[in-house]
Amino acid sequence: DQQVKQNSPSLSVQEGRISILNCDYTNSMFDYFLWYKKYPAEGPTFLISISSIKDKNEDGRFTVFLNKSAKHLSLHIVPSQPGDSAVYFCAAPNSGGGADGLTFGKGTHLIIQP
Amino acid sequence: KAGVTQTPRYLIKTRGQQVTLSCSPISGHRSVSWYQQTPGQGLQFLFEYFSETQRNKGNFPGRFSGRQFSNSRSEMNVSTLELGDSALYLCASSTHGVRTDTQYFGPGTRLTVL
Question: How much is the pLDDT for B1?
Answer without folding.
Answer: 66
